[in-house]
Hints:
- The chain is an alpha/beta fold and 374 residues long.
- It has helices at 20-25, 32-38, 42-48, 59-72, 97-107, 118-129, 165-168, 181-192, 217-238, 267-289, 304-309, 312-322, 331-342, and strands at 85-89, 111-117, 147-153, 195-200, 242-252, 292-298, 353-356.
- Helix 9 (217-238) links the parallel strand 4 and strand 5.
- Residues 90-92, 95-98, 117, 120, 153-156, 201-204, 226, 251-253, 298, 300-301, 303-306 line the site of nicotinamide-adenine-dinucleotide.
- Nicotinamide-adenine-dinucleotide binds next to helix 5, strand 5 and helix 11.
Amino acid sequence: MGASAASGLQMLAVRPGIPACKQMFGSTSAVSAFGRALCTRTVFASRARTTTPGPLISSTHSRFAVRAMSQSGAQGLPIDLRGKRAFIAGVADDNGYGWAIAKALAAAGAEILVGTWVPALNIFETSLRRGKFDESRKLPDGSLMEIAKVYPLDAVYDTIEDVPEDVKTNKRYAGASNWTVKEVAETVKNDFGSIDILVHSLANGPEVTKPLLETSRKGYLAAISASSYSFVSLLQHFLPIMNPGGASISLTYIASERIIPGYGGGMSSAKAALESDTRVLAYEAGRKGKIRVNTISAGPLGSRAAKAIGFIEKMIDYSYVNAPLQKELSADEVGNTAAFLVSPLASAITGSTIYVDNGLNTMGLALDSPTLST
Ligand SMILES: NC(=O)c1ccc[n+]([C@@H]2O[C@H](COP(=O)([O-])OP(=O)(O)OC[C@H]3O[C@@H](n4cnc5c(N)ncnc54)[C@H](O)[C@@H]3O)[C@@H](O)[C@H]2O)c1
């Protein structure tokens, strides 16, 4: 399916009876402490009203959208992903950027498939089934995000031949099958035929807490394998089933270009590779399949992966104090940017690193440096 469809629908996102701030942040906000404080600020209430999701694919939701438009008389540019199908690799709970992106794409009307790391699959599916995520599955129109299918995935293995015996027999992988990148792409093809949107929201660096000077070759290569080559591999295997006009997105971090002590183990190198690959893949996938490739350089978020690094709360505080926009960064803001980037509205943007970090990347001075107060 092509990426050219764009109707004239635009909805107001805020639902009556739900505080705007709760809708804006959901459970995916970056810092609960700042979030709670900021929820009282009117700036968020007014910003929340400008979110522009579209309807889900069912006819009920289409009717809701039409009604919403005619009642509000809203004019403007829509983010309309109805009729598009997205595969989002790297969703295993409702705290990370992958989840927020899934929600934004679903709110804009896309059908959602997710790829979940095999060791995290059981708990994710059980939580989903038991309704643990129901509150955070809520979309701006009040419906719950539907995930059409959850695929087991381990993005460090391209084919089954690459999987070592100890992983094959590991009990965390027992019961799951067809989880290498090639097999997942084949299964998605068998199930759905094609996709329009590919999202890479995963990273892993086993030695992330070690300075680069102390990182082993094994740890460094593992970080690159899980966090950069995994994107090359996903695009390589999914490109043949991506409809022309489609788009892909990955998530990067400013440590690729500025020194962030503590983000070690080769993870800064992995993000630098990911950004460089974004440009090269934009050229290759653009010429080969008319597919756009961009990466979002996101500000700090207290996700499960980020907590493993050990100093994420400090990074969030640092950003709040020093960024041009002195506000909490919500995962939904990254989700909304992703929705824009994969939509026809961004049809001329490819090969770019887009910063969604309250502007922190532009600063050359830490305002809270003790040096400045003397
Ligand atoms: N949290 C931040 O502050 C921040 C900032 C900038 C960029 N990012 C990037 O955002 C992306 C998503 O991370 P997040 O912080 O939202 O955390 P997250 O924990 O929600 O996402 C990371 C995901 O990667 C999955 N994963 C790890 N190894 C995998 C493998 N081999 N195969 C498949 N899946 C695997 C994990 O199961 C998890 O679901 C990452 O690329 C991360 O580097 C995060």
